[in-house]
Amino acid sequence: MAIALVFNPGSNSLKFELVELDSEQGFAGEANKLASAVLDGIGKDTKLLVMKDGKTVSSEKADAADMTAGTHAAVEWLRKSAETSDVLQRLSFAGVRVVHGGPDFAAAARATPEVRQKIEALEDLAPLHNQGSLNVLDVVAKEMPDVPAFVTFDTAFHRSLPEKAWRYPIERETADRHGVRKYGFHGVSHRYMLELYARTVGKRSEECTVVALHLESGASACAIQRGRSVDTTMGLTPLEGLMMGSRSGSVDPAIVPYLMRKENKTADDILRLLNKRSGLLGVAGGTLDTRELVKRDDDAAKLALSMFSYRVRLAVGAYLAALGDAEAVLFGGGIGEDSPWLREDVCAGLTGWGLQLDPEANKSAEGMVRISAEQSRLHAWAVPTDEGLQMAHECLQAMSAER
């Protein structure tokens, strides 16, 4: 058996989990989660939330001015907790999620100085994420110098994209000189959803053709053909694609220079607007949390939710056409798993593909549940994704490959 401590840093959050794995396991979901917690609101009013089965079981204030301080706080909490202090002494390895791995990483890797340099070089393509992962790695090296550290990459799953999908229709020489192409993200989650679905329906991953949806504050769709990612909505950076919590998703690129002139702003100013003040937050105002927006009765909130589900439906339709023979649509991520209204709205546009929603199954879905009628040609599932288990599994594979 192996014990892993995995860190999943976001733009202002840090999830950390202790996972027990069997060295012979073939699927991430076979691992056992020993502890799970998240530092939310890093940099402002931070709270430490202890999780159990995806639900918050306790909450307390925490001191975390930035990702470095947050990682120190996470390690300190694990050392002081009666439930985790002994386990922490038996760590086999630590794992850290990195959003952007560029063209060099097709799998998890040991966090060597050379790997770190490559992650750092990609910071300008994932400005909200890669530096945070490096800060976590620095703390792990300082606090646990004898524990091997590995990194997983959100981009790795999408290395299988064909050139017609990953190449942008701009001048080839310029694009190739600067590595301008679609990389895709949320690969850790998309891979987990695919493999959980395959196990549930009694197939191998290579036999499955599905559209997977990771719908949280960051959101993306992925077209998976016979177990391989063949297209995804996020691109060179995590800004492209679906409408998200505070990110605009895909917009006319001419908007950037247009607003620069009209607002007398720099390109970085407009990118901050598109990353931090757009999406659900920008349209609705006040919050990006769909749980709060569905309670509001104002036109702005209703419009934001309608735009969000509409753009998800557009992406699903495009990928069903691209795949040609998809068997299922997988709704994962916090919004995808917990929002019957969203699943109903998206599936309402898929009747032409033979999807018949089961309203009662959709309304009461909890866990891994088929929400389409048995006779549907195209099925829909609510899928509880688990990036922590997938990260631990991929790091274990990388460590085993070294032996």
Question: How would you describe this protein?
Answer:
By secondary structure, this protein is α/β, with parallel strands linked by helices. It folds into two domains: 2-153, ATPase, nucleotide binding domain (Nucleotidyltransferase, domain 5); 204-382, Nucleotidyltransferase, domain 5, CATH 3.30.420.40. Helix content is 39%, strand content 20%. The chain has 16 helices and 14 strands. The chain has helices spanning 67-80, 85-88, 113-121, 130-143, 163-166, 172-178, 187-201, 255-263, 267-276, 279-284, 290-293, 299-323, 333-338, 340-347, 359-364, 387-401, and strands spanning 2-9, 13-21, 32-40, 47-52, 55-61, 93-98, 109-110, 149-153, 210-215, 219-225, 228-232, 328-332, 369-370, 379-382. Strands 5-4-3-2-1-6-8-7 form an eight-stranded mixed beta sheet, sandwiched between helices. Helix 1 packs across helix 4, helix 7 (187-201) crosses helix 16 (387-401) and helix 12 packs across helix 14 (340-347). The protein is globular, with a radius of gyration of 21 Å.
